[in-house]
Amino acid sequence: MNKKTIILISPPPITTDWEPKKVLSGSPGVRMGLLSIGSVLSQHGYSVKILDGILGKVDLASELHQIRPQETLFVGISSMTAQLPSAVKAATIIREQHPSLPIIWGGVHATLFPEETCSDSLADIVVIGEGEYTCLELTEALSGIRDLHSIKGIVYKNGDGKTIFTGNRSHHDLNALPFPKYELFHLDDYLYRAIIDREDIKNRKFGKMLSIHSGMGCPYQCTFCINTTVYRDGKYYTRSPYRGKSAVRLLDEIEVLLKKYNVDFIDFIDENFLVDKSRFFQFLDGIEERRLTFTWFAGSRANYFNPGYLTHDVIARASALGCVMMGIGAESGSQRILDFLKKGITVEQIEYAASALNKHRIVSEFSFMIGLPHETPDDMLKTIRFVKKLRTIGPYVGTQSPQLYRPIPGGELYDECVKLGFAAPKGIREWTSEKLQISGYLHLDKLPWINRDNKTIVIIRYVTGILSTMKFRWWLIDKTGSFFLKNFLLHVVNMVFLLRERMDFWKFPVEYTCFERLQRFKKYYHRVR
């Protein structure tokens, strides 16, 4: 066992409130990227400590102040763009207390902007892309037994403070990774969750749930997606449209979760779990052959529901073998916008997928966006109508909260946002909590392509504040008295919106002002109680 510890941090969302929070039934699961890196390091004898700020339970500030540099090899920070304010805050604490302790950055944002990130005094080294074996090699370099420049896939500062890129790194075989060492996390904080009960989908059922990381990348061309950047050939990247673990490897991992942790539900972390048709059928065959009993969630695409792939027979079989939920990126109810996003699907395919899954009692969860560049109010209204149409198909059709589009780096749509006047922050410190709202959403006044007319603003407020809270993950809702009051108010505002739409009247949005004030009062009440 190597004597020094490696500390891996996933910072909290952009909020600067680092007070430990209660773990809720809908809290996020294990940080799979850090779990994978930590498992590789543990396999090679290193002591690993993971600080999960996203869960919110850890007192991150206290943990950072307790770091002992003589016992720590390096601190790794994995951050998406929306986590940058907290990531900068964490790195600042470490740098001020221990100036010579190496700070290594990784994750989505650092991967997209490696030299820009490394140029900051809060970063010594940046890991580009998947960091399992890069971090392992960095432990050797920081232990003085290999040259830093020999490690591919990193950016570091030389003695003159100049950033050095070491060249592209080949992608590793996911099947060669060690089995995840879930014990690196305090599992009692992650295992017990409200899960889907298809016999009573509107009420809570508690069980044990863990995730399996099953694949990386995606072969499609969606303009808003990071995969179109980091898994295509470029200065920092090596082409890899999709790489997945084999069906045998997945089934082996599932057996471990069933026998060791007695899980009820498995969430497959994968941009496109069903992209490999052969693997999916081998996966279903393996569940039958091994007589495995568990329920599971996977991501799919609407265009897979066709006579050549996801037929009613295949869907029925998946349902019988434990599939209780599928997530599908719908994005818009306007075909013009779908084509603009290069989504490669049609509204008819989305509707058909919803009907097919509902028929076989698989919950479909569709994601949508609004406030996109070049999206008109009529396009937005088409999305609203389409969301409502999907919800009438049946009880197993649900939609995620329609999101206000976030101009987060990655994909050609971000470049289009910059052309339209979006003031792209430079450097990790400019993505501040003043510019980002919780979870990375920006204030409307930061999105220059959105018109400020009453119609556009009322529609966006309706979608993100009212429509977003209706028929979404029913099994997570704690049905208290306040829930029924809020539900009543939501339906009142919904009826007012229908009248506005019918009359094409968008002035004096007093209903939103009242609703938002009630929301603020509720937050204040819970804070001071």
UniProtKB/TrEMBL annotation:
<dbReference type="GO" id="GO:0051539">
    <property type="term" value="F:4 iron, 4 sulfur cluster binding"/>
</dbReference>
<feature type="domain" description="B12-binding">
    <location>
        <begin position="11"/>
        <end position="149"/>
    </location>
</feature>
<keyword id="KW-0408">Iron</keyword>
<dbReference type="InterPro" id="IPR034466">
    <property type="entry name" value="Methyltransferase_Class_B"/>
</dbReference>
<protein>
    <submittedName>
        <fullName>Oxidoreductase</fullName>
    </submittedName>
</protein>
<dbReference type="Pfam" id="PF04055">
    <property type="entry name" value="Radical_SAM"/>
</dbReference>
<dbReference type="GO" id="GO:0046872">
    <property type="term" value="F:metal ion binding"/>
</dbReference>
<dbReference type="InterPro" id="IPR006158">
    <property type="entry name" value="Cobalamin-bd"/>
</dbReference>
<dbReference type="InterPro" id="IPR058240">
    <property type="entry name" value="rSAM_sf"/>
</dbReference>
<dbReference type="InterPro" id="IPR036724">
    <property type="entry name" value="Cobalamin-bd_sf"/>
</dbReference>
<keyword id="KW-0479">Metal-binding</keyword>
<feature type="domain" description="Radical SAM core">
    <location>
        <begin position="204"/>
        <end position="442"/>
    </location>
</feature>
<dbReference type="InterPro" id="IPR023404">
    <property type="entry name" value="rSAM_horseshoe"/>
</dbReference>
<dbReference type="Pfam" id="PF02310">
    <property type="entry name" value="B12-binding"/>
</dbReference>
<dbReference type="InterPro" id="IPR007197">
    <property type="entry name" value="rSAM"/>
</dbReference>
<keyword id="KW-0411">Iron-sulfur</keyword>
<keyword id="KW-0949">S-adenosyl-L-methionine</keyword>
<dbReference type="GO" id="GO:0003824">
    <property type="term" value="F:catalytic activity"/>
</dbReference>
<dbReference type="GO" id="GO:0031419">
    <property type="term" value="F:cobalamin binding"/>
</dbReference>
<dbReference type="InterPro" id="IPR051198">
    <property type="entry name" value="BchE-like"/>
</dbReference>
<dbReference type="InterPro" id="IPR006638">
    <property type="entry name" value="Elp3/MiaA/NifB-like_rSAM"/>
</dbReference>
